[in-house]
C-alpha cells in the first residue's frame, strides 16, 4: 500500500489517540488501585482469610478493637506476621487497629500493662482488655468474643450427688466443655448446696447433669426457689438414672419417659450401637437456626410435656422415624420394636421452656405441696420480673462428655445452648473454631515418587534439554 501524506496524517492521529487512551487507562488503573482493594485467596483451606466463625464474631463486635503488640523494632519477622494476620481481619472490620510498642524504648508503658515477654499482645474493646502471650486467628477471635460479652456470665454446675464434673478430664466428665466455655468468655464454677445452701445472684445458668443420688429436701427447695426467681437452667439426665427429681419435673411441667431411645438410623454413620441417637434435622429454633451438622446422643431418654400453664415450650431435639423407646433391657440379641410395649418414633429428647416477665407463678414451699389450690393464699404467688427466663431439658448427659463432645456438631450445639440460656443471642450460630490440619500425609509410594522426581527426574530432564539445545546450536 502506498503511503501518501493523507494516510500518514491519519496514522499519526490514530497513534496519538492510542497513546492518549493508553495514558487514561493507566491513570485510571492507578487511581482505582489507590482507592479500592481487590484480593482473592486461592489457598485450598483459605488460610489467608478469616474463617466464618471469625467473621461472625467481628460482625457482633461493632465498636473499635485496638491491638497493642509489644514487639521490639528489630523483630521485623514478628511484625510482618502480625500485620499479615490483622490485614485479613481489616478487610472485614476497618475499625480494628494494630499498634506496635517497643518494650525497650517504652519500658514505662510495658510495666503499666504488666508485659513480661517479647511478642505479648493486649486486646482492648469497650474499655476492657485482655492479654495474650501468642496471637493467631483462633486466639484473637476468642479474645474478641470474650470482650464483646455485655457482662460476666457464670455457669454454675451442681455437684455433691455424683453429677458430671467440669473439673476433671475423663470419658464421662465435662473438662473439654469447661475449656470451650472459658474460651468463649463464660466463667464456670461448681456448687454443693449441702455446703453452701444458696445459689448466688450472679448465676447465669444452673447446670444439673445426671444426678446419681437423691437431693435433700432443702437442696430441692433452693433449686425451686431459684427457678421461681427467674433463674435459667440446663437439666440433663440419663435414661438409666433412678433419680427423677419429680418436684422439679412438676415445677416446669416436663417429665422423663421410661425406657431408652433406640435409633436404627445411626447405622448410616457406621455406628453399630443402636443406642446412639442421630439428629440430622432440627426444628425452627434460635439455638439451631442455620445449624446443619449432625449431632449424636448416646443412650438418650424421651421427654413428655405434662403441664405448660406458665411456660412456652418449644421442641429442640427429636429423633427420626426409624426410632422408638425400648422398654425391655437391652442385651446382645438383635433389637426389634415391640408394638405392644415400645413407643414408635419420632421421640422428643430436647425441649426449651421460656417464661416472660409479668407471668404469675406459684411459689409454694415443699411442705405446702399437699395443700389444695383453694387453700393457697394470694401471697403465695408472685409476678415474674427481670429478664426472660429460659430452661433447656435434654434426655441425655453423655453428648457433652469428653468422649463425645467432639462428635459431629455436639460442641457447636452445646455453645449455642449456653449462648441462648445466657441470652447472648448475638453469639448464636457462631461455631467453635477448629484448627485445620495442614500436615501432608503421603504413603510410601508417593514419597518414593516425589523423592525420585526431585533427585533424578528433574535434574535428568534439565541435562537432556541442555544437550539438545547444545546440539542444535552446533549444527547451525
Q: Order of strands across the widest beta sheet?
A: 6-5-7-8-20-17-14
Shape: extended
Named at the architecture level, the CATH assignment of the largest domain is 3-Layer(aba) Sandwich
The number of distinct β-strands equals 20
How would a crystallographer describe the biggest sheet? 7 strands, mixed
CATH topology of the largest domain: Rossmann fold
Description:
- The chain is of the alpha/beta class and 476 residues long.
- The chain has two domains: 52-147, Glutaredoxin (3-Layer(aba) Sandwich); 150-330 and 340-368 and 379-427, Rossmann fold.
- Helices cover 30% and strands 20% of the residues.
- The chain is built from ten helices and 20 strands.
- The chain has helices at residues 5-35, 52-60, 76-90, 107-112, 137-148, 175-183, 217-228, 246-252, 410-421, 444-475, and strands at residues 65-70, 96-101, 121-125, 128-132, 153-158, 186-191, 203-209, 233-236, 254-256, 260-263, 276-279, 295-298, 303-305, 312-318, 323-326, 343-344, 348-355, 360-362, 381-383, 389-394.
- It has a seven-stranded mixed beta sheet, with helices on one face.
- α7 (217-228) links the parallel β7 and β8.
- α2 (52-60) packs parallel to α5.
- It is extended.
- The two termini are 36 Å apart.
- The model is unreliable at 366-379 (pLDDT under 50).
